[in-house]
Design goal:
389 residues, globular, 79% helix, 2 strands, mainly alpha
Length: 389
């Protein structure tokens, strides 16, 4: 009996060390911290000012919202190259409804969200029911949607927006809301982590050390509190960041705690096996692309309201940033793996690079080169880790 306990303890320690040293999320967070330290040094400390960090998180919210939807498409083993053009078109439609037709914020947002779902379903239909590869379908949609945007705006910027619509991307929540969110983050993470631990023990699945779970909960609480303190020190919690985090929580729950979410991973891991097991693969493809279309609408609304204008150039290359965010965050382009949390951290990395290089007045071409190389290295590391297995 004593030997059994000793063996169990040794396994737990090894598992804990493996989690600490092999966790992709830990590696990404360390890399993010290194990027922040580098830019802090190169900008004489200006990168870590509360004003710049608040601006950084607001910039991140656009890519973050897209990445939250894109990660599910990638988990399916598909891709969407039209997300940036979808964002631009829907943002332009929102501006037209608000400025040219005089719609207030609420009907403008509702119509834009509905159109986003329709546009996403359009891509899903061709992929699921007409068996056209997602690369071709979304490449075609990228060109079509950008052309429609230029056509309906006449190539002109649509501005200025009404105050209520502009507030969506520019307003801040009261400081007390930030502290409420910290409490929710701690309680929610404790519920999910400890609940998951309890279920594993119930079914005799190996678990990591309890201390590591507690440390994770404490870490989430500390990070949440620091984030809120930083944002509150400037003007408060930006509404776009709040919307991004709310969507992340909802879709993370769907992805990890629902049958639908588990089926998405199953389809991405082995589509034929999923189909033979009775999963309606076509329906899931339609739903996921519709969700991404909805999130493109949200991102378009946030970008348009933040810029106080609808522009024909809005969203250009946004899909590349979203895809890179997902891959950096641990999603595999082969399908079957990826998380919402990883996609958000990847979006933070991309936004940090954009923000830091802009503060250094780095030429735009260098920003493209750096982000392209980061994407290449992230994919190479993913392939290399799979080959080792």
């Amino acid at each position: 009996m004593q030997l059994s306990k000793s063996t169990s303890s040794e396994k737990e320690k090894k598992l804990g060390l493996g989690v600490v040293f092999k966790s992709k999320m830990a590696a990404i967070l360390i890399a993010t911290a290194a990027i922040w330290v580098l830019f802090t040094f190169l900008t004489d400390g200006n990168f870590l000012t509360t004003r710049n960090l608040s601006n950084l998180f607001r910039q991140m919210s656009i890519t973050g919202v897209l990445a939250i939807g894109m990660v599910f498409v990638i988990i399916l083993g598909e891709i969407d190259l039209s997300a940036g053009s979808t964002l631009g078109l829907l943002g332009g439609i929102a501006a037209i409804l608000n400025v040219w037709f005089g719609f207030s914020a609420i009907p403008t947002v509702v119509i834009t969200l509905i159109l986003g779902v329709i546009m996403g379903a359009w891509n899903g239909y061709w992929i699921a029911f007409r068996n056209v590869p997602s690369f071709i379908v979304t490449l075609a949609s990228m060109l079509v949607f950008r052309g429609v945007l230029i056509g309906i705006t006449g190539g002109n910027t649509v501005a200025p927006l009404t105050a209520d619509f502009k507030a969506i991307g520019q307003a801040y929540l009261p400081t007390v809301v930030g502290y409420i969110l910290v409490v929710i983050a701690i309680v929610g993470s404790a519920y999910l982590i400890l609940g998951n631990r309890k279920n594993k023990i119930k079914y005799n699945i190996e678990v990591r050390p309890m201390a590591l779970d507690v440390l994770t909960i404490v870490g989430i609480g500390v990070i949440s509190l620091v984030l809120v303190l930083i944002l509150n020190d400037y003007q408060g919690f930006p509404i776009p960041v709040f919307i991004m985090l709310l969507l992340a929580l909802i879709l993370a729950f769907v992805g990890t705690k629902t049958i639908f979410g588990r089926r998405i991973y199953g389809i991405g891991g082995n589509r034929d096996a999923a189909r033979l097991s009775g999963i309606n693969v076509k329906k899931h493809i339609i739903v996921i692309y519709s969700v991404l279309g909805l999130l493109c609408a949200v991102a378009g609304i946030l970008l348009t309201s933040r810029l106080n204008a609808g522009s024909v150039s809005a969203g250009q290359n946004a899909e590349m940033d979203a895809i890179a965010s997902c891959v950096i965050g641990g999603a595999s382009l082969a399908g079957g793996s990826g998380t919402v949390a990883g996609a958000l951290v990847g979006a933070l990395v991309m936004a940090s690079i954009d923000n830091g290089m802009s503060m250094m007045n780095t030429p735009t071409f260098w920003q493209y080169i750096v982000k392209g190389l980061i994407l290449l290295i992230a994919v190479w590391m993913d392939i290399s880790s799979k080959n080792k297995k």
